[in-house]
């Protein structure tokens, strides 16, 4: 093994349902405004414009029962999302080949420092400070696609303290799962270990310390956590 001048960073490993084996994370991609009703609530045109992608850091992804409220913000929003985990990749992937790249699926939350995001938008700056902070992408255990299939529809929802805040259906995605992979692979060379968060339905809102958050993607997974 090659010696390093500092200790190697710990790998980012996610749980896989039904096994003690782990899924190693390489990158985390996110699709912005992929549900029409959410695009509208954020003040955007819901028409089928080219998809907008951004990234979180690999180590923002984790399995855990808590979400630590981040510094520098007083307006942190939840965004429930279906998550794809890739076992293969490439560039300029064909639509008919796209789903063969998927290892499995989970449900996750794209936590966002909305006040900082709004500041960055007004200044014409990138969103990393609002999106790529510590523990900003909690995920359920992944379910292999050979068990779950490739979801085309089904409820996706989120509750805070027992109150339903987001309530959508995965068939409402503007860009469908294979199309997301195709479009993303035009911009980046995808690879095994990549995570893709596929967008959120309407109803996003703020959390505070002490909140109990539960979300689910039908037939895929469930995530429960406490904001601390």
Structural features:
single chain; 228 residues; alpha+beta; 6-stranded mixed beta sheet; 5-stranded mixed beta sheet; 6 helices
Please render the helix and strand layout as text.
Elements: E1 13-15, E2 22-24, E3 28-32, H1 36-41, E4 52-56, E5 61-62, E6 66-67, E7 76-78, E8 80-86, H2 95-98, E9 102-109, E10 112-113, H3 114-123, H4 128-131, E11 137-138, E12 143-144, H5 145-148, E13 155-160, E14 163-169, H6 177-187, E15 195-197, E16 205-207, E17 212-217, E18 221-227
Parallel strand pairs: 3-15, 5-11, 6-18
Antiparallel strand pairs: 1-2, 3-4, 7-10, 7-16, 8-9, 8-15, 9-12, 13-14, 13-17, 17-18
Quick overview:
With 228 residues, this protein is α+β, with helices and mostly antiparallel strands. The protein is built from six helices and 18 strands.
Description:
- With 228 residues, this protein is α+β, with helices and mostly antiparallel strands.
- The chain is 17% helix and 33% strand.
- It has 6 helices and 18 strands.
- The strands form 5 sheets. The chain has a 6-stranded mixed sheet with strand order 4-3-15-8-9-12. Strands 6-18-17-13-14 form a 5-stranded mixed sheet, with no helix packed on it. The protein has a 3-stranded antiparallel sheet with strand order 10-7-16.
Q: What is the CA-based Rg, rounded? A: 17 Å
Specify the overall morphology.
globular
Number of strands: 18
Q: Describe the largest sheet.
A: 6 strands, mixed
Q: Can you tell me the residue ranges where pLDDT is under 50 for at least 5 consecutive residues?
A: none
SS element count, helices = 6
Report strand order across the widest sheet. Answer: 4-3-15-8-9-12
């Amino acid at each position: 093994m090659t010696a390093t001048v500092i200790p190697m960073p710990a790998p980012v490993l996610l749980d896989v349902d039904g096994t003690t084996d782990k899924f190693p994370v390489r990158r985390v991609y996110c699709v912005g405004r992929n549900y029409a009703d959410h695009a509208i609530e954020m003040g955007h045109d819901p028409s089928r414009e080219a998809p907008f992608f951004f990234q979180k850091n690999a180590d923002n992804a984790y399995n855990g029962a808590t979400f630590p409220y981040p510094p520098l913000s007083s307006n942190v929003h939840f965004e429930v999302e279906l998550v794809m985990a890739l076992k293969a990749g490439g560039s300029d992937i064909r639509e008919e080949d796209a789903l063969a790249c998927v290892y499995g699926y989970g449900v996750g939350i794209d936590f966002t420092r909305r006040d900082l995001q709004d500041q960055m938008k007004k200044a014409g700056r990138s969103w990393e400070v609002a999106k790529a902070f510590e523990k900003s992408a909690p995920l359920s255990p992944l379910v292999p696609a050979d068990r779950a299939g490739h979801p085309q529809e089904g409820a996706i929802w989120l509750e805070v303290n027992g109150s339903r805040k987001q309530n959508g259906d995965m068939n409402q995605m503007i860009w469908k799962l294979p199309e997301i992979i195709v479009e993303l692979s035009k911009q980046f060379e995808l690879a095994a270990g990549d995570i893709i968060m596929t967008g959120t339905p309407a109803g996003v809102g703020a959390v505070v310390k002490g909140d109990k958050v539960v979300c689910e993607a039908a037939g895929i997974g469930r995530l429960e956590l406490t904001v601390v």
